[in-house]
Amino acid sequence: MNLTLHVWRQEGPGVPGRMERHEVAGVSPDMSFLEMMDLVNERLVREGKEPVAFEHDCREGICGCCSMVVNGAAHGPKKATTVCQLHMRTFKDGDTITVEPWRAAAFPVVRDLVVDRSALDRVIAAGGFVSVNTGSAPDGNAIPVPKEAADVSMDAAACIGCGACVAACPNASAMLFTAAKVAHLNRLPQGVPEAARRVRAMVEQMDAEGFGACTNHYECMEACPKEIPVRFIAEMNRAWTKASLSAESAAADKAGFG
Amino acid sequence: MSRKRPPLLSTIGTKTTMAVTGLLLLGFVLVHMLGNLQVYAGREKLNAYAKLLQDAGGVLWVARGGLLAVFVLHVVSAFRVAAMNKAARPVPYVSAVPQVTSTAARTMLLSGLVVAAFVVYHVLHFTLGVVDAGNHGHLDAKGRHDVYGMVVAGFRQWPIALSYVVAQVLLFFHLAHGVSSAFQTLGVTHPRLAFLKGRFGTVVAGVVLVGNVSIPLTILLGLVPCGAC
């Protein structure tokens, strides 16, 4: 396969970038998208030029590192697929493909296609955890977990934190990511004691990072490689409203914690 | 933890305000439409209904004040959301291909602004009698404000009828996304209520479109008798 690539090149944070054209010859349909990018970079290195920087790690669709907007779609055109699992057979010989980084104020470009996604880590640090006392290990299965709660929690926990939801959202909103983390923890017995505090703190951090507001386009769910449903966003909206109106939350604010 | 901004001004708080005020406005639109459809029941019915509202006095002004407050909150929240969302993506994509979002969803600000402008025009027309002043302020045989005559004479002028139809088409798009979106924002998750977030918005918007557009269209086509207007 022979392809024409238009790739975003940017030397560093805050400097203007541009699209760069590359003719790529000899692409195998069995290559993954990242292997095709490797081919481009090998040639650039041979020519003494700077290779295209992009993030990758496991290359099996579970780490959440790879992050490219391919032909205007986060992780490319295929449903429920990270770009590392997107194979070149999805494209046709002679295709022109645009490759861009995730674009959001909260995700500054580090270089070329690499963006800084620490904002998502800070949303997690604000409340995406359960507090446990250290000491001897508790007995296994000492806390009963309803089967339904475990199942839905697991669905939400499938989020790999890649940020495709933010990239695909017309508003660069991180609602699907944050909602998945809230849904994952808030329904488990271990997560319930901090549920109200969690949803408020995570939403507050999400806003502070400069992510947009959800206007229910549902592009996030379409782009999500793990198919996290937008039902979790509705769930978080409700949990947030309830927590914001609760007397316990008001008391916690007054006491200076929570 | 000290909060930087009150919950009501957060992204979810602003969206919740939009959803609540939006549904209240939808309630008004539906009641208003049912009131207007009485034009088909003839001059007597419509003018009597108009007199009933006029005679409400203080209650009418409280309702108008409440409606205005809801309207202003809805518009202010919309601008706030739009500003936050614009700031969230300062560098646009070279190529961004919408996968699932609708035209209605992507043009909410535009359709909303047109509908807001229409509301002003509509009040200037039928309430204040600034537009088409010649047909405003006449009395019927019983000495009541002849709303029926004003409406029929007004819509027999095609530019006025057309402007109403165009505004209602934009209201259709606005409601088609807005109503379903409001239920998602308000946190409806029960499977039995899933329809509220699905087709419901389009169905409600369609009912409003058919009901409201029928009035200027049937009048323009001469299907509603003019009587002595």
Question: How much of the residues of chain B is beta strand, in percent?
Answer: under 5%
Helical residues, percent of chain A = 25-40%
- Major sheet of chain B, described briefly? none
What is the count of helical runs of chain A?
9
> How many distinct domains of chain A?
2
Order of helices and strands of chain A: EEHEEEEEHHHHHHHH
Order of helices and strands of chain B: HHHHHHHHH
* End-to-end separation of chain B: 67 Å
Q: Order of strands side by side in the largest beta sheet of chain A?
A: 2-1-5-3-4
Report Rg of chain A.
21 Å
Main CATH class of the largest domain in chain A: Mainly Alpha
SS content category of chain B:
mainly alpha
Describe the structure.
- The complex is a heterodimer of chains A (258) and B (229).
- Chain A is α+β, with helices and mostly antiparallel strands.
- Chain A has two domains: 108 residues, Beta-grasp domain (Ubiquitin-like (UB roll)); 128 residues, Fumarate Reductase Iron-sulfur Protein, Chain B, domain 2, CATH 1.10.1060.
- Chain A is elongated, with a radius of gyration of 21 Å.
- The N and C termini of chain A lie far apart (57 Å).
- By secondary structure, chain B is mainly α.
- Chain B has one domain.
- In chain B, 68% of the residues lie in helices and 0% in strands.
- In chain B, helix 5 crosses helix 7.
- Chain B starts with 10 loop residues before the first helix and ends in a 9-residue tail after the last helix.
- The chains are: A alpha+beta (258), B mainly alpha (229).
